[in-house]
UniProtKB/TrEMBL annotation:
Protein's recorded name: MotA/TolQ/ExbB proton channel family protein
Family: Belongs to the exbB/tolQ family.
Keywords: Cell membrane, Membrane, Protein transport, Transmembrane, Transmembrane helix, Transport
Subcellular location: Cell membrane; Membrane
GO cellular component, one term: plasma membrane
Annotated ranges, domain MotA/TolQ/ExbB proton channel: 97-220
Record GO biological process: protein import
Bilayer topology: Multi-pass membrane protein
PANTHER family cross-referenced by the UniProt entry: PROTEIN TOLQ, TOLQ-RELATED
Chain ranges passing through the membrane: 37-58, 138-164, 184-205
Length: 234
């Protein structure tokens, strides 16, 4: 009798465990895109912003790093060529050096013989063009750093509207959490992802601005050195 009771108890326990089946865990993608059609559209827009932010950051980073590379002996070689009257050799050296500094110095060398003010103006105008090339599309990162969180907040407002609409449709009936989950997911996840995109774009923008400023300072230092060379008494 005791044996039968033990068998029955074991069978009941096994049956109870079978009934309590573990719920399938949601993946990150399922959680992110579980906010209904409106939430999915807003989330897709945010992820497009993230893609462009990452692309723009690395594209500009590679361009800025390439622009910052210059031979440490470049200005010394330019100085020696100019002092020895080898203007064409100095031009060739600048032409073979692919950097903003070399292009500015080449612009100045091409104006040698004219008043120093004209040379300075020509270099300054060329410098503005080089800075524009360095800062190209960087402002887009600043735009995304603000647009990302704002789009996420839009999703929050839309999600809350959906949730309250579900509550209004239920009337006096009991409201189940499952009916509100779509709006809640939209409200929460769009805000989180939007803030993440904004932070990434903001940090990337400031990093690029810092690296660009270093190159601009390098350009200014080399231009001043070149102008001082031209201003030296012969």
């Amino acid at each position: 009798m005791i044996t039968f009771l033990q068998i029955d108890t074991t069978a009941v326990a096994v049956q109870a465990l079978d009934q309590i089946a573990p719920k399938a865990e949601l993946s990150v993608i399922d959680i992110v895109f579980s906010g209904g059609m409106v939430g999915q559209i807003i989330m897709s827009v945010i992820f497009i912003m993230l893609f462009f932010a990452i692309y723009l950051y690395f594209e500009r980073l590679l361009a800025i790093n390439a622009a910052s590379k210059i031979d440490s002996n470049f200005m010394n070689n330019i100085k020696l060529n100019i002092m020895n009257g080898k203007i064409e050799s100095a031009k060739i050296l600048c032409a073979h050096t692919n950097s903003p500094v070399a292009r500015l110095i080449e612009k100045g060398i091409s104006r040698i013989g004219k008043p120093l003010a004209d040379i300075h103006t020509a270099i300054e105008n060329a410098g503005k063009l080089e800075i524009y090339k360095l800062e190209k599309n960087v402002s887009m990162l600043a735009t995304i750093s603000g647009a990302g969180p704002m789009t996420g907040f839009l999703g929050t407002v839309v999600g809350m509207v959906i949730a309250f609409h579900k509550m209004a449709e239920s009337g006096n009936n009991k409201i189940e959490m499952s009916t509100l989950s779509e709006g809640i997911y939209t409200a929460m996840m769009t805000t989180v992802v939007g803030l993440i995109v904004g932070i990434i774009a903001y940090v990337g923008y400031n990093h690029l601005v810092t690296k660009t400023d270093k190159i601009v300072n390098q350009m200014e230092a080399n231009v001043v050195e070149f102008l001082d060379l031209l201003n030296e008494p012969t």
